[in-house]
Amino acid sequence: MTPTPYHPPTVLVLRALGLGDLLAGVPALRGVRRAFPRHRIVLALPPGLTEPALATGAVDAVFPAEAPGRAVPSLTHWTGPPPHVAIDLHGNGPESRDALASLQPRRLLAHACPDGPPWPADVHERDRWCAFLHAYGIPADPFDLGLPRPGTRSPAPGAVVVHPGAASGSRRWPGERFAAVVRCLRAAGHHVVVTGGPGEEALVRSVAERSGQRAQDVLAGGLPYRELSALVADAALVLSGDTGLAHLAVAHGTRSVTLFGPVSPHLWGPPESPRHLALWKTGPPGDPHGSTPDARLLRIRSGEVAAACLTLLGPVRAPGPQPGPVVAHVH
User: Fold this and answer.
1) pLDDT tens, 246-257?
2) From the candidate CATH numbers 3.30.300.30, 3.40.50.2000, 2.30.42.10, 3.40.50.1970, the one assigned to the domain spanning 160-313
3) Cβ neighbours of 79 (radius 10 Å)
4) What is the pLDDT of residue 330?
5) Model pTM?
């Protein structure tokens, strides 16, 4: 008689957002992993984030789910039996709660459930989801953020990584200011690479041309995740706006300078550490998904960004030959 194969019970977690959202949710995901050691943890999120999701060590499998504009995706293509536990880490509902409830899980954890905790509006994203799990008796440490370094070789070990792009215009600092900072860093003897994701080629090219970057120091079009992760893990510093790359720098313990505009770093920024600086001008919150640069972001000047980078970097230990004459113009 053929034995019946064992299928472990499933925990389905919904967090179908971006890379930064995934990395901010790592402490909560690891809390779920520890709370359900004999379960199969499946994370519903965009398929393009499969590699970073699995790299967290908290997820056994990915269920592809995405919708435009950070909306709640449909889960109707789920083909397995109802999950034993479904956990809404996507938002405060009720749409995300209802998407999970449609799968008829044995147990559903969500802010919008009758037994769910109230939604805290003004807390850091990492703290929010750890507190949510604590309310259900699941411990989670908001500082459990680290990712292992990938085995892939970095395309530019020891470089300063400058990433001028962002998912929305409101979080995109002007390219000419990034270029001014790049010129300043190169003048100080630092090797700089400029990166960009898919669709950001024109921005990356503009920053590179304004700053005199060599072609081999321009990484446009979006690196494969493992290569990007290795680049960040082995970087001297990462300079970016409030993007997924900033969260990746925190996950790898890489020094970073992050520029915030519509959203306070108290809600989405790095943990307090001498390795990370978050630059932000106080003011009322803006639209993190707006199309034009936020007014608070525009109040951050090139000179203070360059100074923050140079402070974290310290002196260049073994300067090599610099490509061509470099003149630093700080606006």
Assistant:
1) 999 999 999 999
2) 3.40.50.2000
3) 6
4) 36
5) 0.91
